[in-house]
Design goal:
about 190 residues; mainly alpha; 10 helices; about 0% strand
């Protein structure tokens, strides 16, 4: 319990500090290369989680208050399972800022949640064209391939996510599951 409280305090503090530099924004931020380099060598546990959190915070940053507000509204709609509303907000973000990778990534999530896998993959591809290191989008791609029973693609995609973020739990667990199963041949 003590360890968990310390981790939460560290995550909260790192989030606050990240917002101080929000004049820079999104996937082009100059802080990202060093964070990705540290992510590669970070041990599993709190340190890796803090680095990941900082990356997500930077990806979400945007210097345009309109985009920031739309992203907040979309996030609340997503949390409340109002997927159509969230989709509309993210679409407006993309319309206003087509080079903002996180707008595409979040809309990909909504498409995934409502079962529009092809549209989700399209949004993920756009995300990755803007931010090739987007381990969240890559992992999402693996989930879609798993849902489509494209086991080989799913495994390769989860492995690709782990090359960028070796301690990311989702791809690790999904790979373990895929490796334990006697997978049927893909159609």
């Amino acid at each position: 319990m003590k360890h968990r409280s310390l981790l939460l305090l560290i995550l909260f503090t790192s989030s606050i500090l990240s917002f101080e530099n929000s004049a820079k924004a999104d996937q082009k931020d100059g802080r990202l290369p060093a964070l990705f380099k540290r992510l590669l060598t970070a041990p599993p546990g709190p340190y890796s989680i803090i680095i990941e959190s900082k990356i997500w915070t930077i990806w979400l940053e945007n210097s345009d208050p309109k985009i920031t507000e739309l992203m907040a509204r979309a996030s609340r709609a997503t949390q409340n399972k109002k997927h159509t509303k969230a989709f509309d907000y993210y679409t407006e973000v993309i319309r206003l800022s087509p080079n903002y990778a996180e707008g595409w990534n979040k809309r990909a999530l909504i498409n995934y949640l409502i079962g529009n896998y092809d549209k989700s993959l399209s949004d993920i591809n756009r995300t990755l064209s803007l931010e090739p290191r987007h381990f969240g989008a890559i992992s999402g791609q693996g989930l879609i391939y798993s849902a489509q029973k494209k086991w080989t693609l799913a495994k390769k995609t989860f492995e690709k996510a782990l090359i960028i973020h070796p301690n990311m739990q989702g791809p690790k667990l999904n790979l373990e599951i895929l490796n334990r199963q006697n997978l049927e041949e893909e159609i």
